[in-house]
Design a protein that fits this description.
By secondary structure, the chain is an alpha/beta fold. The protein has 2 domains: 77 residues, no CATH class; 274 residues, TIM Barrel, CATH 3.20.20. 35% of the residues lie in helices and 19% in strands. It has 11 helices and 14 strands. It has an 8-stranded parallel β-sheet. Strands 1, 2, 3 and 4 form a 4-stranded antiparallel β-sheet that branches. Strands 5-6 form a two-stranded antiparallel sheet. It is globular.
């Protein structure tokens, strides 16, 4: 019999004063949570569910079986854990507010902008510079399409695509991540000046990748994909409960990374929206994003222009998904997500800045309190 506990924030307030201080600052960010569901899962089924507030959480955790109580207490501590800034070359990226990661695909076949920047390097440089100027904290360079049905690219070709783009971005002073699942590409990208590895396989595809990241001492994004160990990232996407199963899978990838010598402070997590997941799965994961802070690592959300937006908007084509992309980015902000990976940087940054202004104002708004 296997028991597991989960703590999901379910009630949010503009600031702690709204609950007379009985709220937590979620993951050290700009979101405050005051109500939580504590769930006990046994053999894949939720057998108990309690509601708690910060001042009653200790009592609720005390009702859990001994074999999961310690993990639940660690999750509760993780929900309030403030993450240190990312030191990326000359740039410092603070994680106490949402940051925007701009996408630069140097591929012929990515679902959104494939082919746009592969052959025209000057256009790619201009696009990267525009994203930095618009407020992107990080530029994410990818040379292999991960859309459904895409063929695996030989690592030599991938290196040839990404290295010039990385060098150009580094040359303009940008912080750069490399979007790859191959160890050789990671090595070449880091040598070219990349600062972060963003692995859609969660370091499961290439047996050397964890060693490369550990030796480099760089931050790494571990993403969930059901087919991570094979060539088809989308294969095997069937779930009894997608939220719990993705949570458990990310925890397992974290454990593997730690065992490989990667520092806990260098691990970021991505639930993998759109990778081997149905529309219902994606919606469930986005609604449950606050739960994933209980794993104790910064979160990245990559939902920009994805298929789910088209499915919810009369099959709008990729180039007409800006509104849905910003809506999902805002949902990520409300969930306390630290990094938002997007195509439309200027629009997302503007939305973030307005959202941040509202959050700042809420902390000093005492008009509805006595005295």
């Amino acid at each position: 019999m296997t028991d597991r506990a989960y703590i999901r924030p379910i009630g949010f307030v503009p600031g702690p004063q709204s609950e007379h201080g009985n709220a937590i600052r979620l993951a050290g960010g700009m979101v405050y949570a005051s109500r939580f569901a504590v769930m006990l899962r046994r053999e894949g089924q939720v057998v108990e569910r309690w509601l708690a507030a910060p001042d009653t959480m200790a009592g609720v955790l005390g009702r859990l079986p001994d074999d999961v109580a310690g993990d639940a207490e660690a999750q509760w501590a993780n929900l309030t854990l403030a993450h240190p800034p990312l030191e990326l070359g000359a740039r410092t990226v603070r994680l106490d507010q949402p940051q925007v990661m701009g996408i630069l695909n140097v591929t012929p076949d990515s679902f959104s902008d494939g082919g746009t920047f592969l052959d025209d390097r000057e256009a790619g440089r201009d696009h990267a510079a525009a994203m930095v100027e618009a407020g992107a904290a990080i530029i994410d360079v990818g040379g292999e399409s991960t859309r459904p049905g895409a063929k695996t690219l030989w690592e030599g070709d991938e290196i040839e695509r990404v290295v010039p783009a990385i060098e150009a971005c580094v040359g303009m002073g940008a912080a750069v991540s490399i979007d790859t699942r191959k160890a050789a590409v990671m090595e070449a990208a880091l040598a070219a000046g990349a600062h972060i590895v963003n692995d859609v396989s969660g370091l499961a595809h290439d047996p050397r990748s964890a060693e490369v990241v550990a030796q480099a001492g760089c931050p790494v994004v571990l993403m969930h994909a059901p087919g991570a160990a094979g060539d088809d990232l989308h294969k095997g996407g069937t779930y009894d409960n997608v939220v719990f199963e993705v949570f458990d899978a990310l925890r397992a990838r974290c454990d593997a990374a730690l065992e490989a010598g990667i520092a806990a402070s260098n691990i970021l997590l991505d639930p993998g929206i759109g990778f081997g997941k149905s529309l219902a799965d994606n919606l469930a994961l986005i609604n449950a994003l606050p739960l994933f802070h209980a794993l104790g690592h910064p979160l990245l959300l990559g939902a920009s222009r994805k298929r789910m937006i088209g499915a919810l908007s009369k099959e709008a084509p990729v180039e007409q998904r800006l509104g849905g992309s910003v809506a999902l980015a805002l949902e990520g902000m409300r969930a306390g997500v630290q990094l938002l990976r997007v195509h439309d940087v200027a629009e997302t940054v503007q939305a973030r800045n307005v959202w941040r202004g509202l959050r700042d104002a809420a902390l000093t708004d005492f008009g509805d309190l006595p005295g």
